[in-house]
Every structure is written in structure tokens, then in C-alpha cells.
């Protein structure tokens, strides 16, 4: 027998009162996006459950995708059969014979939402239980914690059988908390920060600073590949490439070495904030982690943050590097992050950035630059592309070639 549909139970959103339908509709959209590689799959969602109709699509592939989508607490694949007692008897026999091992215990839990059906749920339990005993005389029934709890649901249009309950990713549907701009480098930390923001329902757009020709097309592709990895949790993500070469050259030419990092980061923050404002984002998200490198001190964070009053969310700020790596491996970004493409900071960064930058000095150095003009030109030059889960290798190659030209 082949699974015909997957029944999806919602996560935390059940507690969200009036917003419930908004959450459910968002989750439905996200599921559709993530499963867009499977055109035959159909998704419906009502107040209590979502249903994914496979229409012949491979169950295992769809299940792997579903496990990643935030807002799903659990799901159960089910078989759809004709609403007739002999067909149901045959179905429970087939399923249990398939699953049977020595000592296996089971129970049948029937539910009848079609009240015109000839048997009520108690009678169904008895009749279908007997059918299983007929096929497997040695099997044992057990009402409390059986190995297999075979659920039978009689609905208007058909009967459904299911026995698995697979744990989902939890979290909130991406998009239900509003939008944030993720500052995405090619490193290990920022994709993890993005993943954690997505988990709590934040819809992210990825902002990446590139400084060609100092940074390579490979570094850009790396950031895009990382973004693509993040699409499996809630759907498409806008990737925003910011031209950063002019700013880095200016800073390098006019500010002392020890302050390059601080000034660079302040520009990144200003530009990200400007893009956020234009695109309706509410917060900025970055991958800063306290004390990880000399530049990530509280003093440094303060100097960088001083250019904006927008909330800056730092999901990995208190994590140890190994904790961050654990998550990076789990979400499959680690192997991309460690590819050896240098990003704009590695190239321009001094060996010894100031760990305790003074705002007074920072402002004095910035006075030598046309801050507003530089920011405005960078923002005017952004390139936005939508990254989707199923983008093909060839698209990537074409994109790479475009960037080389
Ligand atoms: P990551 O592993 O995310 O690169 P990191 O440990 O290397 O972080 P830093 O280089 O100090 O830390 O960068 C701190 C944060 O600044 C990054 O996590 C990221 O959010 C942002 N950032 C740094 N470089 C870029 C870039 N080229 N484009 C966009 N954001 C960047
Ligand atoms: Mg980095």
C-alpha cells in the first residue's frame, strides 16, 4: 500500500487565540513553498490540521522536507481507502502483517466523523481487531502503550488509516513574527543566527556585503548557497548583495589600521538598517558571538551598534563556538561555511583590531569620509535575487558565469 496523504498537527500556534488563522495560513504558504519541487502535492489547512495530499509523490522525500518546516509539531502519513467494512478489514490485515514481529502489541483506535457509517467506533474497533487476529493469531492486543496504535478515521469522503506519529521541527511558522534583515557573511555563525531567527517565526532577508574584485564570485556563491540551505525551514528568501568595494577602499585609505574593523562594521550596520527601512523589516539579525574574536567585545559591539536604534538580535551571542558548530552541522551549513573563500572582512581586516574602540575616535575618523554619500551609493547599488529551495545546479552555474563577466 502507498501513503496517500500526510496529516499535520500544528505546533505552538494553538495557543495564539485570534491570530490562529493567520498563523495557519502562513504555515500553509510555507509548506507549499518548501514542497514546490513536487507539483502533484496539494496542501489544505483548517483550524485543527493541515493535510498534504501526495497524489503519487514519493512519501519519504516529502517527509524529509516536512521535518524541517517550523510550526509543525508532528505529522502522520496515512492510507486512504474506500469506506467499506471488507476493504477496511483487508487494509488493517495488510498493514499489521507488514509490521508484524514476534511479540508485537497493537490496538485499533477508530473515530467516526461520518455518523451515517454502518458501524460506530466501538464496533469498528472490535470488527477490525478481529480481522487482525484472523491474519495474525499470535499478535497481542494491548490498550495501554501498544507498539502500534492503528488509527482508523471514517470521514465523509473516505476512510483513513495511520499508525506513525513523526516529530516535526516545532518553532513558529516563518513570517508570523514579521521580517528581519540577516547580515549573512560566509562564516559559520551568521547562518546559524538566521536559522534561530527563522525558528521563532522571523521572515529573513539575507544581506551580504561583497567587495569585488577583492572578494571572489566563489565567496558570493557561498553566501547564496548558505541562504538556500535556510530556505528549507520556511520557504524562499530574498538575497541582497551590497556593493562594498568603494567603502572598504575609502576606509583603508583614510582611517588608521586599528579602526578599520570598527568603521567597516558601522558602515555595514548603517547600510543594513537603510535597506531594512526601505523593505519593511523590523529588526537586524547578525552572527556576533561574545569574545569569539578580538573584535567581538562588548565595547566593540557598543561602538558598532551606536549607529542605529533598531533592535539588533544576536541569536548566538552567548553560545560557545562548539555549540554553534553543532547547530551548523545539524542544519547542513557547516561544510559550506568552511569552504576557503575569503570575504570582505578577512581581506581588509588588520591583524590586531581595536578591542576597545573609542566612539570619540571613531567619529573623528568618520568625519574624514563622506559617510552619507557612501551609504547612499551602496544602497542604490544593491542586487536582489530570490533564492528558492529547489533552484537547480544549472541556475547556479549560470549565475556564477554572470558574476565572472
Ligand atoms: P560569521 O561566522 O557569521 O562570519 P564571525 O565569527 O566571522 O561571524 P565577524 O567576522 O566578527 O564574526 O562578523 C560578525 C557578524 O557581522 C557576522 O556574523 C555577520 O552577521 C556580519 N558580517 C560580517 N561580514 C559580513 C558580510 N560580508 N556580509 C554580511 N554580514 C557580515
Ligand atoms: Mg566572518
UniProtKB/TrEMBL annotation:
Lineage summary: Bacteria, Bacillati, Bacillota, Bacilli, Lactobacillales
Function: Catalyzes the ATP-dependent transfer of a sulfur to tRNA to produce 4-thiouridine in position 8 of tRNAs, which functions as a near-UV photosensor. Also catalyzes the transfer of sulfur to the sulfur carrier protein ThiS, forming ThiS-thiocarboxylate. This is a step in the synthesis of thiazole, in the thiamine biosynthesis pathway. The sulfur is donated as persulfide by IscS.
Example of a GO cellular component annotation carried by this entry: cytosol
GO biological process, one term: thiazole biosynthetic process
Pathway the protein takes part in: Cofactor biosynthesis; thiamine diphosphate biosynthesis
HAMAP family (alphabetical): ThiI (MF_00021)
Entry GO MF terms: ATP binding; CCA tRNA nucleotidyltransferase activity; tRNA binding; tRNA-uracil-4 sulfurtransferase activity
Pfam families attached to this UniProt entry: ThiI (PF02568), ThiI_fer (PF22025), THUMP (PF02926)
Organism: Streptococcus ratti
Protein name stated in the entry: Probable tRNA sulfurtransferase
Localization terms from the record: Cytoplasm
Binding sites annotated in the UniProt record for ATP: 183-184, 208-209, 265, 287, 296
Database matches in SUPFAM superfamilies: Adenine nucleotide alpha hydrolases-like (SSF52402), THUMP domain-like (SSF143437)
Keyword terms, alphabetized: ATP-binding, Cytoplasm, Nucleotide-binding, RNA-binding, Thiamine biosynthesis, Transferase, tRNA-binding
Listed EC numbers: 2.8.1.4
Family, similarity comment: Belongs to the ThiI family.
Domain of life: Bacteria
Domain called THUMP: residue spans: 60-165
Gene that this sequence comes from: thiI
Reaction(s) catalysed by this chain's protein: [ThiS sulfur-carrier protein]-C-terminal Gly-Gly-AMP + S-sulfanyl-L-cysteinyl-[cysteine desulfurase] + AH2 = [ThiS sulfur-carrier protein]-C-terminal-Gly-aminoethanethioate + L-cysteinyl-[cysteine desulfurase] + A + AMP + 2 H(+); [ThiI sulfur-carrier protein]-S-sulfanyl-L-cysteine + a uridine in tRNA + 2 reduced [2Fe-2S]-[ferredoxin] + ATP + H(+) = [ThiI sulfur-carrier protein]-L-cysteine + a 4-thiouridine in tRNA + 2 oxidized [2Fe-2S]-[ferredoxin] + AMP + diphosphate
InterPro entries linked to this entry: Rossmann-like_a/b/a_fold, ThiI_AANH, ThiI_fer, ThiI_N, THUMP_dom, THUMP_ThiI, tRNA_STrfase, tRNA_sulfurtransferase_ThiI
